[in-house]
Amino acid sequence: MLKVNSNYQKLPGSYLFSTIAKKVAAFSKANPDKEIIRLGIGDVTQPLPPSVIEALHKAVDEQAAAESFKGYAPDLGYDFLRERIAECDYRSRGCDISSDEIFVSDGAKSDSGSIQELFDTDNIIAVTDPVYPVYVDSNVMAGRCGTYDEKTGCWSDIVYMPATAENGFVPALPETLPGVIYLCFPNNPTGTTLTLSQLQVFVDYANQNGSVIIYDAAYEAYISEEDVPHSIYECEGAKGCAIEIRSFSKNAGFTGLRLGFTVIPRELKVSGVSLHDMWTRRHGTRFNGAPYIVQRAGEAVYSKAGQSEIRNMIKKYMDNAAILRNGLKDMGYEVYGGVNAPYIWLKTPEGMSSWEFFDHLLNNACVVGTPGSGFGPSGEGYFRLTAFGTEANSKKALERISRL
Ligand code: PLP
Predict the structure, then answer these.
(1) Residue 143: how many CB atoms within 10 A of its CB?
(2) Regarding beta strands 148-149 and 102-105, do their DSSP bridges make them parallel or antiparallel, or are they unpaired?
(3) 169 lines ligand 1 (CB under 6 A)
(4) Is the Cα dihedral 24, 395, 163, 333 positive or negative?
């Protein structure tokens, strides 16, 4: 008899953002005249930079002539883009990564969800808590997480590494030895980071114990402080234990275009097996390459003009982050993040649960954020606001919150 993958049935019923969408829709229906400010979902709002638009137009025009038309892209990405990534994102920061260790993809969500395929289903995974939900859900779908406890919000076979105000958002090393450790810094949802020496502790642990770190650096471009590593390969020995995932979504506004990449160093081996070779095989089998025009757009991000344009874009978002962060602090909220990441993570007031605070903000200020508990058990009692809105809306949201 045909059977479906029953692991999908184990996933808790409502995905965080669909629950939020339902609540907001119900509120709008009941209050059609009220204007809602959305500081919930992490999508960008600014248009693509001029250099990117120019590159897109040029690449589109190339498709109209037989001599310059491009069909299937190379599975692992065009050299012109892989070279720029290796040079600008890695070698210029002192990380010895070569272009053939870079796998261009259609975004960090696909890569962070699929990378678990490289590991046997009986491996234990460890995640920081709270966490970007894709790491956990993709492992649940693969049958790696055991059973879900509604009361605690925990999966029985996952090792959680809490990151809360109590430990300064620096997760402790896992108590049970995991095979795979997911780290995301700058962090979504907390907006916090690790220093180089704090990250080095994880790298040393992975090397000593034969674990592999999946390092999601989707928000790298938002780092403003000196002692915060932009790549895990800034740590000694990381090439022997870490895979890094990056995205063009949040640094250059590619959420709709779709482009990202994963770095797997050639020397990264598990029991003598090269993960680089495995991911090459996987890409060749399941992926026919990111579109040529999008890769040309990605290349434009690294041009001189492109770099200056994206810096302006990031500055605008980070100005919003400062407005929200400082404004909430002035009102007496306990606020984290917003310095090296476009996320503000605040402690809910007066012991409210994350969802209670969500309802309170929606009903009384018409502001939508994201309940921290949706990101994991240690997110309870916290709330996430994003800086991806407009300056006017960020200010308006603050003003409304101040009147609560
Ligand atoms: N990784 C993290 C931590 C994210 O927060 C997001 C998007 O919100 C992604 C990956 C997804 O990036 P992409 O748009 O490249 O799929």
Answers:
(1) 15
(2) unpaired
(3) no
(4) negative
User: Which of 8, 31, 28 has its CA nearest to residue 20?
Assistant: 28
| Cβ of 101 less than 6 Å from ligand 1 | no
Residue owning the nearest CA to atom 2 of ligand 1: 218
218 lines ligand 1 (CB under 6 A): yes
DSSP-based helix, strand, coil % in the chain, nearest 5: 45, 15, 40
Q: Is the CB–ligand 1 distance for residue 187 below 6 Å? A: no
Specify the ligand 1 atom closest to the Cα of 184: 3
pLDDT tens for the 404 residues of the chain, in order:
999 999 999 988 667 888 899 999 999 999 999 999 999 878 999 999 999 999 999 999 999 999 999 999 999 999 999 999 999 999 999 999 999 999 999 999 999 999 999 999 999 999 999 999 999 999 999 999 999 998 899 999 999 999 999 999 999 999 899 999 999 999 999 999 999 999 999 999 999 999 999 999 999 999 999 999 999 999 999 999 999 999 999 999 999 999 999 999 999 999 999 999 999 999 999 999 999 999 999 999 999 999 999 999 999 999 999 999 999 999 999 999 999 999 999 999 999 999 999 999 999 999 999 999 999 999 999 999 999 999 999 999 999 999 98
Is the distance from the beta carbon of residue 384 to the nearest atom of ligand 1 less than 6 Å? no
Any atom of ligand 1 within 6 Å of the Cβ of 253: no
Helices and strands, number each (H, E), in the chain: 13, 17
Is 383 touching ligand 1 by the criterion CB < 6 Å? no
Q: Which two tokens stand for residue 110?
A: 């696909």
**Cα–ligand 1 centroid distance for 212 (angstroms):** 20
90 DSSP 8-state letter: I
pTM for the whole structure: 0.97
Distance separating alpha carbons of residues 235 and 237, to the nearest angstrom: 6
